[in-house]
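As the work plan foresaw, the team has encoded backbone shapes as discrete tokens. One protein thus recorded appears below exactly as we store it.

:::
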Amino acid sequence: MTHFVGFMNRKSPLICIVLLICAVIGCMVFYSFRGNEIDRDVPDDSSEKYIEEETKQVEGTSVLWSGEEELRAVWVPFMTLDMSKADDQSEGAFREKFSTIIKGALDYSMNALIVHVHPFGDALYASEYYPWSHILTGTQGKDPGYDPLEIMVEMAHEAGLEIHAWMNPLRIQASSTPSALSQDNPAVLWKEDPEKSKWIVQTEDGIFYNPAYEGVRQYIAEGAAEIASKYAVDGIHFDDYFYPTEDEKFDAEEYAAYKKEVSSSGSPLSLQEWRCANINALVSLVYQKIKEANPAVIFGIAPQGNIQNDLNMGANVEVWCKAKGYVDYICPQLYVNFENKALPFETAAEEWEKMVTCEDVKLCLGLAVYKAGSDEDDGTWKNSSDILARQVSLGRELKCSGFMFYSWEYLSSEQTQEEVQNVMKILK
């Protein structure tokens, strides 16, 4: 791309236009013939051979881009939204549940909700891609009779809160949750399709989409774009679930095909590098599709705080932090305290701050409210009652753009009360 741009700069406008038209037509023909084949020409980000094409950053209305205040978001996981065991599963009951969530967020000085709307290859909204989530009625695929995301967007905005749609990109079923998949779930439909049967992988722990396939990545990206185009969300959010295992059996056939393809012309990537390239291709496509659907919607990812763990899962977070066209923000889940022996909070926060060098990528810090006052990490969370407050203060010293707290229910629990009250003093 760099050589092509340099060449164009030296030629006349007419030649540039002709060359550009040829390039576009060539790409269209190339992809039309590839169909559903494995995308073996994934950019080699891990070996730094991939030069990111310039992507115009369009700022939305989010507080992350306004510069007037820091983001103070709380994660609202699917468990908090669960209606499956309720006697009353009506729209009115859901509105009542969500009004409680909004009140709690406001009581604790939050200005944004990260709401879990796509937890298991399903949807808490009317989707053309995914079946209705089982957490609404107890049965996946059953229409609850209302649109939860539409309601949550309406209620959050009326209360002055941002709302970001939280998606798990690859998970379809985990630890027998949901207990049964609907007949219109792609994992069920694709089993009978010779071209798509390998797009899903069943492991001992669950069922997952296989990001080695271009068709899978396209499907996930279009699912994200659907939300951006149909709902007035402020952002779309991925968490830290990418490749579910380091086991080479997960995609052994696809990796073998890739190595065979490239071995005649060069050295193939290692399995980890190849997986990272697949995820990079997915993330960049999701970003592109979201911006095409609605440029004002921001896209962010909350990876694990341990960078090596991210790489092991196929998440090359350093690339996302340094290049345009992947994310608008990165929010590492720094679920450790200052005394953590493996990864002290201050060390981790400074490492992430140094890694975010792209001026269009904001850094937020994910904080573990759920650990406050607990016996986690050898009881070190009980050594002080101002750990979260000091973490926020350090984040501000590092010029971070905001914080995300996990999770909503722990803001008001008895276990975390003292820590939360102390952090509230510096948030207000």
In short: The chain has one domain: 35-427.
